[in-house]
Specification:
InterPro entries: Epimerase_deHydtase, Lipid_A_modif_metabolic_enz, NAD(P)-bd_dom_sf. It comes from Virgibacillus profundi. This is NAD-dependent dehydratase. The protein is α/β, with parallel strands linked by helices and 347 residues long. It has a domain of 223 residues: 3-Layer(aba) Sandwich (Rossmann fold), CATH 3.40.50.720. Helices cover 37% and strands 18% of the residues. It has eleven helices and twelve strands. The strands form three sheets. The protein has a seven-stranded parallel beta sheet with strand order 3-2-1-4-5-6-10, sandwiched between helices. A three-stranded mixed beta sheet has the order 7-9-11. α3 runs parallel beside α4.
């Protein structure tokens, strides 16, 4: 594996993954609309920026590519519910099309980062053979993507699905709309962790550094050990009930923190078994939620990390749409104040 094409390269996970791939000596083609800014990826001689929508990729963009990591997604449940049709287009149809184009152009390996959220609600601890029960548009679109790409696997095209736990931790494209990150910010800002009732619901968690390590590992693993396989990505240590999770985060921080409840009870609840990835690839997660929370807290304290509109995904999507409407109303001759060059005729 030499050249890796990463979709969603400027996102929360992509902006951690891409530098890691470059450090390992890969050449990277980074595909993204860069809604959150192209500055999230630093220039590098082995990095090519492809400013394109995943729904408009063409076969020639996969020429010379060895592997695809298809990160692109309308991420999180609130955004999925707000933009239902787009979520199915991006998270399902575009990713299946990307896999098909990759296979057509001789790409050897395709990795789909999906989500444990497709388990939805489970009484038992879910493993890769458990029935899925997706409850949201985001989860349903991920499941359809899995169903679309796995049948493409053959001796010449290795396909692997990663069902990631809920991700947390620092990223250059920071998100504070993720459970651990949001709890940490609340604790730092005013000593309060906001927590959706009733705190008994289960969620598996994984640090962004851990899940990107798995992506790198899947690029190097023997094809016959991962082809056509689904792996839950996380750790049993990081299966948390949200109430105890908030208490662990509070205990990890060097300040007094209280828990403040809000909202209606969240009925999504699932625990996940991660034995398969640990056994098959001899991998174990390095980080706990407490580790991730302390890292974020320290950056906030130093002032190297701030909460902005960009760090809440749905808010930023809505802001971009608002400004697109404003700009469309005032744009004329290719500009706002400065116009496309033309000679002014003075009579």
């Amino acid at each position: 594996m030499k050249t890796i094409l990463v979709t969603g390269a400027g996102g929360y996970i992509g902006s951690v993954l891409v530098p890691k791939l470059l450090e390992k000596g890969y050449t990277v083609s980074a595909v993204d609309r860069f809604f959150f800014g192209v500055d999230k990826l630093q220039p590098h001689p082995n990095l090519t920026i492809i400013h394109e929508d995943c729904r408009r990729l063409e076969a020639d963009q996969f020429a010379g590519v060895d592997a695809v990591i298809d990160l692109v997604a309308i991420s999180n449940d609130p955004s999925g519910e707000e933009f239902k049709e787009v979520t199915y287009e991006v998270n399902h149809l575009a990713r299946v099309n990307t896999a098909m184009l990759a296979k057509l152009m001789g790409v050897k390996r395709y990795i789909l980062p999906s989500s444990c959220s497709i388990y939805g609600f489970q009484d038992a601890i879910a493993d890769e053979n458990s029935e899925t029960n997706p409850l949201t548009v985001y989860a349903k679109a991920n499941e359809k993507a899995e169903q679309g790409v796995l049948p493409l696997a053959d001796d010449n095209f290795t396909v692997t699905v990663m069902r990631q736990a809920t991700v947390y931790g620092y990223s250059p494209r920071m998100r504070f709309d993720l459970a651990v990150n949001g709890m940490t910010y609340g604790a730092w800002e005013n000593g309060v962790i906001p927590l959706m009732r009733d705190g008994s619901q289960w969620r598996p968690m994984i640090h962004v550094e851990d899940t990107t390590d798995v992506m790198c590992l899947l690029l190097e693993a023997e094809a016959n050990s991962i082809n056509g396989e689904i792996f839950n990505i996380g750790s049993n240590r990081n299966n948390y009930q949200l109430g105890p999770l908030a208490e662990e985060i509070a205990a990890a921080l060097p300040i007094d923190v209280k828990i403040e409840w809000y909202g209606d009870p969240d009925h999504r609840s699932y625990r996940v078994n991660f034995k398969k990835i640990e056994t098959a690839l001899n991998w174990k997660a390095k980080y706990t939620a407490a580790d991730g929370a302390l890292q974020i807290y320290q950056r906030l304290e130093k002032g190297s990390l701030q909460k902005t509109e960009q760090t809440i995904t749905l808010d930023w999507y809505k802001e971009l749409i608002k400004w697109q409407s404003i700009i469309n109303q005032v744009d004329k001759y290719g500009g706002i104040l400065e116009l496309e060059k033309s000679e002014i005729q003075i009579n």
